[in-house]
Amino acid sequence: MGGTFDPIHHGHLVAASEAAALLDLDEVVFVPTGQPYRKDDRRVSEAEHRYLMTVIATASNPSFTVSRVDVDRDGPTYTYDTLVDLDAQRPDDDLFFITGADALAQILSWKDAEKLFDLAHFVGVTRPGHALSDAGLPEDRVTLLNVPAMAISSTDCRQRTRSGQPVWYLVPDGVVQYIGKYDLYKEQ
Ligand code: ATP
Ligand code: MG
Fold first, then answer.
1. What is the spatial distance between Cα 48 and Cα 100, in angstroms, rounded to a whole number?
2. How far is the CA of 23 from the centre of ligand 2 (A)?
3. Which end of the chain has fewer CB atoms surrounding its CB within 10 Å, N or C?
4. Which residues contact 106 (CB under 8 A, 6 or more apart)?
5. Separation in Å, CA 123 to CA 41, 88, 101, 105, 170
6. Angle at the Cα of 55 from the Cα atoms of 53 and 58, rounded to 5 degrees
7. Does ligand 1 lie within 6 Å of residue 61's CB atom?
8. What is the pairing mode between strands 64-66 and 28-32?
9. From ligand 2's centre to the CA of 63, what distance in Å?
10. Is the distance from the beta carbon of residue 79 to the nearest atom of ligand 1 less than 6 Å?
């Protein structure tokens, strides 16, 4: 499961857990993106912070792990490169790329889109506010799943932190404390 994870929240964790259970996956590898200068016109937290929050959030689940492939690669993150690197590290594994309805809708515009489906099976999960549609996606390489609706976004968590509202129970406890410890999300 790839993401910016700035910060990781319970929407990500529920989606991963549901996909793993429904598709009988052995492991979910969370892959925080490398460092974009900006995303949606805002500054993204340092990759190391996003990586560590992802480690904290997933530490208690024996089938959740975190990969540094994107954090350690220079330049913008393309899912194609992520999958090539993971495939090289795990040549015997079948890869499934878990993604939310909003991201799935953009897949066809991603770099090397047609080659993505050779590298992994794509799993699109429901996300409140975004329609889950497989229009234009190869049927045998994409599975759509309904997961319990969690109307949580990282954007909302950042805005809440900035305006002094709590993020308790939207993100794992250790992530609440990590955000406070490093004073993340104070500025736009
Ligand atoms: P931002 O608001 O900064 O874009 P985000 O909440 O969308 O953050 P990302 O790191 O961009 O989080 O998302 C990583 C992946 O998780 C994407 O594929 C996204 O669609 C999916 N995702 C994020 N939030 C949810 C949610 N509440 N339910 C299901 N999927 C989600
Ligand atoms: Mg997003």
1. 23
2. 23
3. C
4. none
5. 28, 21, 9, 12, 23
6. 105
7. no
8. parallel
9. 23
10. no
Q: How far is the CA of 25 from the centre of ligand 2 (A)?
A: 23
What are 170's two structure tokens? 């939207």
pTM of the model as a whole: 0.96
Verify whether ligand 1 is closer than 6 Å to residue 7 (CB atom): no
What is the 92 CA–ligand 2 centroid distance (Å)?
A: 30
Q: Using one digit for the tens of pLDDT, what is the confidence trace for 8-51?
A: 999 999 999 999 999 999 999 999 999 876 666 678 999 999 99
One-letter amino acid of 44 = V
Cα dihedral value 74, 13, 139, 104, nearest 10: -50
What the chain holds in terms of domains, given with CATH numbers, is 2-151 (3.40.50.620)
Look-up of token digits 């499961």: 1
> Measured between alpha carbons, how far apart are the two ends of the chain, in Å?
26
